[in-house]
Amino acid sequence: MWNNEVVINTVRFVFLILLQVVLLDHINFLGYVNPYLYVFFILVYPLTGNKGLLIILSFFLGLTIDMFNNSGGIHAAASVSIAWIRPFILKYAFGVGYEYNTIKISTASFSQQMIFIISMVFIHHLVLFSLEIFNTSQILFILKSTLFSGVFTTLVIFCSLYLFGKKS
Amino acid sequence: MQQIIYFLLRNKNFLLFFVLFLISVFLTINSHSYHKNQYVNSANFISGGIYSVKSSITDYFDLKNQNKKLVEENRLLHLQLYQLENVTEIPKPEVLTNDSLVSLVGAKVINNSFSKTKNQLTINKGSLEGVQIDMGVIAPEGLVGIVSHTSKKFASVQSILNSNSQVAAKFKKSNHFGSLVWNGKDPHVVQLKEIPRVANVALGDTIITDGRSTIFPEGILIGTVKDFEIEEVGDYYNININLFADMTSLKHVYLVARNDAQEIKQLEKEASDVEQ
């Protein structure tokens, strides 16, 4: 199974973690807003790829980010959540067509991409900030963080998708 | 039996997700309680190494600012030195022994966070240089945090900007003490709780560490009173404190340990054993 796709995904895995912990965690726009671009790995994971494998990879992706951030397991929890929920959102955003490999994320229509990316990013961020803040009395703060960081992440993901997405 | 196996096979992705999610939540809750073992932390050679490389590059961007801070610290130390030289009285022996109870290690912050609600720092000194869990961390200007994990070459520090942190603090002028916590909002402002209503609080009062905790020696600067109000229920003040240390640009820090910490803990343990 040592083919091109495995290499690309491995490189992407390592590169996104490095980018996240070295650069993106230190942006602190408006004091506390950071993009979490590493979810890009989960978004562009091959549509026909093994779903169980994706969940395991997402767990280690999140756990590595947690290790750097000393944050326990919040990124791991958020990542496995969207890895598991991804097939349902794919079906919702692109219709059943995606299962037969007739659609690619980078070539789908803008609104379909939008629905897919925004749903994934916001679920991820909601789980992330709920677990980080872990306090029901600060639910407004959780929602505010989710919204601001979510918009930032979505923008950065769109840019990456257009810069690095395959045009074929 | 076959039914169960079919069920497991059909829902294997969900079960996988569920198990990994539970592990993550367990790790998260574990990291909230300070004294439990945290399995995943940045005091290890991978993240420590990467942060070291990052820090060796980004250090240059902040050199001017850091130099200015070090010069300022030097100036203050010189000032204190001259003042001491001008004192004709020889300091009393008690004062000397008190000072020698504290040991200092210098370290560099290689990763800093201040934008989350549970912030941690990573520093480039570890157990090889004598860094231990529960050592206090201070910047030239004031309090920073407490060492929470160590590896051979690195240590992670629970910042005062962490909603799990609690540090014993008191007024410099009156000895009324309380505990210092953070509400997760402004990285320059922390909160002082449990100061009784009878205390006399004024804007600009200096807050220092309290020697009751075995982590910090008494008298390390923390900050000044920014504003305060009296709780609607209860007899305590809610006080906002402006931190002296700028947590957003930390580079050089010192680790302090009280050499008498063991003795105090031992004594307290014996005392509580006797009570039982």
Find the count of extended strands of chain B (DSSP E, 2+ residues): 12
**Alpha carbon gyration radius of chain A:** 15 Å
- Order of strands across the biggest sheet of chain B? 1-2-5-4-3-12
Strand content of chain B: 25-35%
How do the SSEs of chain A run, as a string of H and E?
Answer: HHHHHH
User: Into which percent range does the helicity of residues of chain A fall?
Assistant: 55-70%
Distance N to C terminus of chain A: 23 Å
Largest interface chains and counts: A-B, 38 and 42 residues
Categorize the overall geometry of chain A. Answer: globular
Helix-strand category of chain A: mainly alpha
On the 0 to 100 scale, the average pLDDT of chain B is 84
What's the main sheet of chain B like?
A: 6 strands, antiparallel, barrel
- Whole-angstrom Rg of chain B: 22 Å
| Class inferred from helices and paired strands of chain B | alpha+beta
N-end to C-end Cα span of chain B:
53 Å
Low-confidence stretches of chain A: none
The number of helical segments of chain B is 6
What would the principal axes of the Cα set say about the shape of chain B?
globular
Element-level helix/strand string of chain B:
HHHHHEEEEEEEEEEEEH
